[in-house]
Write a structure and sequence with these properties.
mainly alpha; 22 helices; about 0% strand; about 80% helix; Amino acid/polyamine transporter I
Length: about 450
């Protein structure tokens, strides 16, 4: 198997994320907690994608419009994410190729390019959420015009170049710190909002009305698209390879797969908590106040408006909200630019200077946002509508990455002893089929609304 994987790696034009591949040491013969600490980090970078500004707008809107009903979709999405991310990490560790490289290897150049275009569009949709979130936060905190804020986000990509010079563990530490800021802010605001906890628990129980109600289904699928991120499957399969592993020792590979799964599940559980807090905040503070409260600016203003949120209203809550929004946007910038590098090199075998690759990736995403801002005169409502539709697109793009991931991790010849068990393969196919059918309905209803 080792010889086969070496040949595949040569075909892939080198290791994934070569500048950080196998740069983090892990202890040998250490205890559980020390080993877990050494392997912890990639899961945090992946979890960032599950709590980016796109999640905010969909989760808070879901709460403000349908109260606690869509908590069941956050739970379902998180469980699906845990399964898929474990499979992605396992693929990267065992084959020493990321999902983009493996897909290109098995499909060839023409189909590989087509899949790259689709995946790049999904990354652009993700970047749109990050750009809008950061630009709105800059406007709220520093009164920077929206168009200028969008342009400033182009230079965020250089932040990652500086961070990587400090070492990949430093990047992971900064990401975890920003996640902690977001968690603390929303836990505090939710506690102040005094939600109906009995209704919260009930909200995690799936209800059939979600599928039969077109408006509710659209927001629900937006939550799925914002939570289960297709680009994260490519990212995780790449950054799971940042640890130094002796591939001649199969037991060491097995240890790496095990701890990568534990790290991923812990971090995604944290993302589940944050997404739940966002929806609960939307429901407890804004349910019954109209659909318009699903916008960042409206939420910022409402948090200091005692006519809406009552006695707890305070400018401090608004500022904390904007700070958390900026932290989320910056976190997502780091992971989004890394993913752009992974898919470009994996699908196209294209090498270019690191700074240029990241500027190109961000430039592709920032263009539609700038056009939207110019056309609508910097109106936040129009720009944030673009964000919501971008998250629905992510839900549509998800099966395109799920299908090859399931195929490859279920291939005994490719994965050896690490092949998916039968129940994992069956469950993965069921998830893919169900999401595809739901997304076909979403496309139909969206087109019916437009025309």
């Amino acid at each position: 198997m080792e010889e086969k994987h070496e040949q595949m790696l040569k075909y892939a034009n080198g290791p994934s994320l070569e500048e950080v591949n196998a740069t983090v040491d892990v202890p040998k013969n250490a205890g559980f907690w020390r080993t877990l600490f050494a392997f912890s980090g990639p899961g945090a970078l992946v979890a960032v994608g599950y709590m980016d500004p796109g999640n905010w707008i969909t989760s808070i809107e879901g709460g403000s419009r349908f109260e606690y009903t869509l908590l069941s979709f956050i739970l379902l999405s998180s469980l699906i994410a845990m399964l898929l991310q474990y499979m992605a990490a396992k693929l990267g560790i065992v084959t020493r190729m990321d999902l983009a490289q493996a897909t290109r290897h098995h499909t060839g150049k023409k189909l590989g390019i087509t899949l790259w275009v689709t995946t790049e569009l999904a990354i652009m949709a993700t970047d749109i959420a990050e750009i809008i979130g950061s630009a709105v936060a800059l406007e709220l905190l520093f009164h920077i015009p929206l168009l200028l804020g969008v342009i400033i986000t182009v230079f965020d990509v250089m932040l990652l170049l500086l961070l990587q010079k400090l070492g990949f563990r430093k990047v992971e530490a900064i990401v975890v710190t920003l996640i902690a800021v977001i968690l603390i802010v929303f836990a505090y605001e939710v506690l102040l909002s005094n939600p109906n906890w009995a209704s919260v628990v009930k909200g995690y129980v799936p209800q059939t009305k979600v599928v039969t109600n077109g408006s509710m289904l659209t927001v629900a699928l937006g939550i799925v698209g914002a939570t289960v991120m297709p680009h994260n499957l490519y990212l995780h399969s790449a950054i799971s390879q940042t640890r130094k592993i002796d591939y001649t020792n199969e037991e060491e590979v097995a240890r790496a797969v095990r701890f990568a799964g534990i790290d991923s599940n812990i971090q995604l559980a944290g993302a589940f908590v944050i997404n739940s807090l966002l929806l609960i905040l939307g429901a407890s503070m804004f349910f019954g106040h109209g659909d318009s409260l699903g916008r960042f600016v409206d939420l910022y203003n409402a948090l200091s408006n005692d006519k809406i949120v009552g006695a707890i209203a305070s400018p401090v809550l608004s500022v904390l909200f904007a700070i958390a929004l900026l932290a989320s946007g910056q976190n997502s910038t780091i992971t989004g630019t890394l993913t752009g590098e992974v898919v470009m090199e994996g699908f196209l075998h294209l090498k270019m200077p690191l700074w240029l690759r990241r500027v190109v990736t961000r430039g592709l995403a920032v263009t539609p946002v700038i056009i939207c801002v110019i056309l609508y005169g910097g109106k936040e409502s129009a720009v944030e509508s673009l964000l919501l539709y971008s998250q629905v697109f992510l839900s549509i793009a998800l099966p395109i990455s799920m299908i090859p991931l399931t195929i490859y991790t279920s291939d005994k010849k490719l994965m050896g002893r690490f092949v998916n068990s039968k129940w994992v393969s069956v469950l993965s196919w069921v998830i893919t089929i169900v999401l595809t059918l739901l997304n076909i309905r979403l496309v139909y209803e969206t087109l019916a609304t437009l025309f």
